[in-house]
């Protein structure tokens, strides 16, 4: 009897260690980010400078989704996504063009698509973007539009059960593109061996620099699990003041949520509606 019990324990241990990777629980999250209507009763001061959003452990699922939208538009013949140079477009107006998968179509956007595109996937191997037909919040997005709110991004992704330490900060961005102000940096001119240059300080040369483009919405969402689902979000919402100056409002929240419930993150300038759902369990 004792040998039977030991054998049963051994078989149970071996069976547990041999469980496939997909035995880890998987979830999917869907969200809609939108800008709030400008209100005259907002008294918050958003001009206070904030620390940059943390850059560690970032996972960008959206960029390829935005590129896919541009690639599809190029294949459909949309002239906005014509990859040819301006000269080629002028001299070869009637000729067709080749839509390369490697073209960075995001650079061509003045405003990003609300819904990034991905082929529908069903695996549980790595995190991936939801396809448009896998989203369920279309009626909510249309209701927001009827209320005069402006949807910036409608997307989602699938992810495994991960601890706070292992879970990545998923990059979330969208909306209008704002160019960073032009700045200048000064460098020393190359030294000269002439006697005059040794007696005087060589003048510095100003070089014009341009930073990366800024998007209306830019931030990260991190979802980890410890008995419950926890969502850590950090967003910058950028907008132009009446004077034409670019300002940014920060929204940072840490929230415990339940799968299946629809949650709302509120801010005077923007809002996010999201839902985390169980996937195949």
Automatic annotation (TrEMBL):
Top-level taxon in the UniProt lineage: Bacteria
InterPro entries according to UniProt: CsiV
Cleaved signal peptide residues: 1-23
One Pfam family cited in the UniProt record for this chain: CsiV
Keywords: Signal
Name recorded for this polypeptide: Uncharacterized protein
